[in-house]
Task: inverse folding
């Protein structure tokens, strides 16, 4: 619980600082997790940041491994269009083998602009179980933007 409160305070402060940096659009902070958890920091990926490769719908952003079961997607941009769009895991090197990690990101007519998305992995997964993440259109089985953690 204490780690979660400290992390929440840190992310709130980071969000507030990002919102005052003179951007044309106000940044937003969204918790898109399906579950809540407190985690250890044993993975060698903790603290590392990876850039999403944009594939469609103007998806951009940076994925930071916060701890063994929490990811932060910062500077997130996405036009909000598509069908069913979620953050998906890559497992065994493939997003087709992955699973949904978030709520639906679809927001037609209301794009994400430099948003920060907090994502806690389900209790059955840890960062060691996934190879990367994708902004994934599950209905079309296509990635709008993705990164593998290698």
Result:
């Amino acid at each position: 619980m204490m780690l979660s409160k400290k992390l929440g305070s840190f992310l709130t402060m980071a969000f507030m600082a990002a919102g005052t940096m003179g951007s044309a659009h106000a940044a937003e902070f969204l918790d898109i997790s399906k579950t809540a958890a407190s985690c250890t920091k044993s993975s060698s990926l903790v603290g590392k940041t990876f850039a999403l490769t944009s594939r469609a719908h103007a998806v951009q952003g940076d994925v930071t491994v916060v701890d063994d079961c929490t990811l932060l997607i910062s500077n997130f941009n996405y036009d909000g269009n598509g069908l069913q769009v979620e953050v998906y895991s890559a497992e065994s090197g493939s997003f087709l083998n992955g699973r949904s990690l978030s709520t639906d990101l679809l927001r037609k007519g209301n794009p994400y602009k430099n948003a920060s998305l907090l994502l806690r992995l389900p209790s059955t997964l840890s960062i060691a179980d996934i190879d990367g993440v994708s902004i994934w259109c599950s209905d079309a089985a296509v990635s709008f933007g993705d990164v593998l953690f290698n």
Residues 1-26 have pLDDT under 50 and may be disordered.
